[in-house]
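Local shape tokens

___
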Amino acid sequence: MAETLGLLALLSAKPGKGGELAEFLRAGRELAVAEQGTVSWFAFRLDENNYGIFDTFESEEARTAHVNGEIPIALTGVTDDLLAGEASIRPVDVLAVK
């Protein structure tokens, strides 16, 4: 099977909280590694206050399991403290992979 599905989450840190958000995302890697259905998981920084997560899946079941898994629960737990607003989380279709 191929990675045909993904999720893109964009996160904006509260002023002065970018470093803490980066550390939270680095720690999130361990949760992603434990998910059998998550093929790839990337946490990235766009600039001092804007970050994101991109992950890929081979099935809708795997993507749904991820959406209902530990990472979104952990993200909800830090939203009030670290994020300037609600995370933008969008499902995407993966068109090509190398």
User: Anything to note?
Assistant: The chain has a mean pLDDT of 95. Residues 18-34 form the longest helix (17 residues).
